[in-house]
Amino acid sequence: MTDKKDVLAGAGPNTRLAHVGNDPAEFHGFVNPPVVHASTVLFPNAATMEKRAQKYSYGTRGTPTTDALCAAIDELEGSAGTILVPSGLAAVSVPFLAFLSAGDHALVVDSVYSPTRHFCDTMLTRLGVTVEYYDPSVGAGIASLMKPNTKLVHLEAPGSNTFEMQDVRAIADAVHKGGAVVTLDNTWATPLYFRPLDFGVDISIHAATKYPSGHSDILMGTVSANAAHWRQLWDGNFALGICGSPDDSYQILRGLRTMGVRLERHQESAMRLAEWLEGRDDVASVLHPGLPSFPGHALWKRDFKGASGIFSIVLDGGDPGRFKAKAHAFLDALKIFGLGYSWGGFESLAVHVNLSDRRICKAPENGPVVRLQIGLEDMADLRADIERGLAAARAV
């Protein structure tokens, strides 16, 4: 008889999301795993305690709730193991600390999430790690930037705010020849639309705060490793004493069940709005990998199975001295879009993007960049709201 796991391996994404991560037979038939709150775990005798010879030994090492979420993420990622951490930024910083030491050199894509850059320029630098930023379009040319002490190369595809694509396979192959570990922040695509480990990446990073949660009320990060790097990741995380809480793990696991259908809606609405905005005279350009006009579109089409609901627009700016005023006028006129820094939730959000920290991928010169998170609202209402913002920006 065919095992359920074998059936799920060949099933569609929504079927898998509905069933991965827990076995009701293990919990008296209940569909969802219990929320197990734990710090202390008791042992039956001293010998078992000495050897930790039972499945659970202390709350930081996992509970049935956190294990269920890790198992679900491993199924989606194709990874050997996953750790849970309290935020998306922690999901970046923990593997950096696990694989880098004083005297090492790290290469980080210049289109990176700005808090990641801040961590690199402050904490990592203080700890004696040299960080160098590289052009996301470098591809196999990353080999020319590698040094004997290069130990980690970090990717983000697409890049934060401006959505530059990267040739992940070409970069990973070149980096591995130099003996370094490859990490990638895959929050934008989720493992439904891109599986980094299938393209040579060693460590896949997600801000589960975003689409896995889907409801703008949980902070969590996941870090998934291939077999060759799993033990070092786990050891580093255990040494730091960082773990995700059972309550938040339960909520993320619950959010996963609907992530597929939510992403379909996010993707459809965002693509339709991006196509409409591309034809507007008051929009200088639309930064969305799913658009054929976007410079990285061919890479996105080749490697990705879909697009999520976040992209940016460059407003027709005119006088550079008025860029901020135009962006603020656009944002202040919005009634449905909220002004907030996160994304991946049910509600639409907008933010004026600050690109002043870029060293290679400079900010567009023809207008201010506004990032749009497209939520689950009705398209007609979102379009009307954006039109309100554009009208206000034109008046500046």
What can you see in these coordinates?
Belongs to the trans-sulfuration enzymes family. This protein folds into 2 domains: 4-255, 3-Layer(aba) Sandwich (Aspartate Aminotransferase, domain 2), CATH 3.40.640; 260-394, Alpha-Beta Complex (Aspartate Aminotransferase, domain 1). The relative contact order is 0.12. Strands 1-7-6-5-4-2-3 form a 7-stranded mixed sheet, with helices on both faces. Strands 8-9-12-11-10 form a 5-stranded mixed sheet, covered by helices on one side. The termini are far apart. It is built from 13 helices and 12 strands. It is globular, with a radius of gyration of 22 Å. By secondary structure, it is an alpha/beta fold.
